[in-house]
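testing teh design pipeline on a random one, pls ignore if ur not involved
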């Protein structure tokens, strides 16, 4: 413990020396250099005490868990049932959130943004978590979906519901276009190529002014309606939402409607992912993730498997991008930078590779928590980084690293095996 704490203190002192140890001060003789080595000592001492405290706390928790191991084992043996209960509780909380007495417009807006990232995380989970393909340019498909909806709605006057499948299909086509050149790449090389693809899409959107309006973006994007009923105070010649249902007009009606739209889209993404995992293509993704050479020897086509993962993951990003465009009413290339891909990938990795509920929990910590610090712009990214550090220290393999197997073989025999062994011992 002491060695780790001393090592952490030394590293902290080396990092704090150029940042805190020197300061330029303005005096009558001009600029002078002040030395503040005491601040460096304070920083090193704080890190030493904090690291030592964390070590003692970890040792104490370890002893507590060892004492309670027999109590926790029955619960640990039923992870699937426990996660289903947690999942249904999260769905019920999401459905009832707009009806809660404390739910204001700010909270619903933040919950809507959170659901967008959850949907993006579930889409990227197909590529990274199930197929094991590291994708750093996922935001490119997000941008394709947003711009395709914006251009189709403004050029042809199509509604959100008609443009939604087109946006997903176009993003899936881009996923296939990305998949073909990277079929033979793995690991870091695949990550570099996908990163370059994301930047290429952003630069194209930034410079193709005749189509995308360049850095000025596209504004005045059409908002979705409720089966043709617009969320407006008055619409000449048309019946509005509040008039049809006999309600007083409120701008919050559109906010709540958009919240439920993204909730339905996110739940559909989750249901699709859970179902397709049990199909042959889903099992082929997981086999590809574990060993591509073994997949080839078993007759699995790696080309078709990779392309299907890229296409389906990109399709859900296109759906999310289409919703983002209609929610914002304005899009620009600045909304689709590399940091967005990094955040989505961090949600998937820190939530646990292939874990659906883990992605939700990671999105709450990595997106929801910094949103509460948005008013404190200087500390917002500090909250984001702090949440990532805490997750990596607490759960290095992700919040929910363990997953139930896709298929159980001879499950009844496996469950009966301990009982048979106990009877034989008697």
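output:
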């Amino acid at each position: 413990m002491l060695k780790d704490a001393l090592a952490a203190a030394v590293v902290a002192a080396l990092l704090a020396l150029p940042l805190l140890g020197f300061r330029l001060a303005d005096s009558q003789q001009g600029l002078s250099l002040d030395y503040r080595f005491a601040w460096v000592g304070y920083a090193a001492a704080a890190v030493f005490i904090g690291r030592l405290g964390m070590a003692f706390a970890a040792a104490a928790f370890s002893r507590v868990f060892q004492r309670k191991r027999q109590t926790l084992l029955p619960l640990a043996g039923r992870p699937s049932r426990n996660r289903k209960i947690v999942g249904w509780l999260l769905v019920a909380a999401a459905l009832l959130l707009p009806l809660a007495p404390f739910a204001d417009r700010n909270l619903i807006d933040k919950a809507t943004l959170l659901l967008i990232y959850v949907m993006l995380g579930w889409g990227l989970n197909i590529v990274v978590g199930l197929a094991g393909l590291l994708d750093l340019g996922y935001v490119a498909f997000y941008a394709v979906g947003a711009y395709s909806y914006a251009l189709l709605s403004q050029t042809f006057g199509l509604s959100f519901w008609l443009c939604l499948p087109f946006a997903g299909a176009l993003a899936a086509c881009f996923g296939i276009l990305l998949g073909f050149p990277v079929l033979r790449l793995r690991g870091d090389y695949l990550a570099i190529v996908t990163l370059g693809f994301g930047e290429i899409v952003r630069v194209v959107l930034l410079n193709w002014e005749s189509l995308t309006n360049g850095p000025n973006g596209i504004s005045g994007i059409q908002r979705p309606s409720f089966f043709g009923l617009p969320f407006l105070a008055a619409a000449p010649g048309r019946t509005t939402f509040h008039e049809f249902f006999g309600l007083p007009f409120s701008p919050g009606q559109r906010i709540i409607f958009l919240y439920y739209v993204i909730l339905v889209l996110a739940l559909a993404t989750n249901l699709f992912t859970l179902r397709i995992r049990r199909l042959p293509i889903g099992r082929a993704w997981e086999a590809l993730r574990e060993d591509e050479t073994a997949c080839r020897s078993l007759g699995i086509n790696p080309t078709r498997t990779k392309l299907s993962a890229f296409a389906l993951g990109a399709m859900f990003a296109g759906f999310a991008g289409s919703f983002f465009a209609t929610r914002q009413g304005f899009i620009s290339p600045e909304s689709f930078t590399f940091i967005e891909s990094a955040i989505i990938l961090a949600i998937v990795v820190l939530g646990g590779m292939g874990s659906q509920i883990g992605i939700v929990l990671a999105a709450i910590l990595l997106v929801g928590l910094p949103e509460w610090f948005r008013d404190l712009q200087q500390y917002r990214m500090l909250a984001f980084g702090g949440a990532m550090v805490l997750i990596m220290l607490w759960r290095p393999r992700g919040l929910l690293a363990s997953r139930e197997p896709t298929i159980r073989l001879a499950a009844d025999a496996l469950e009966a095996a301990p009982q048979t062994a106990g009877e034989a011992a008697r």
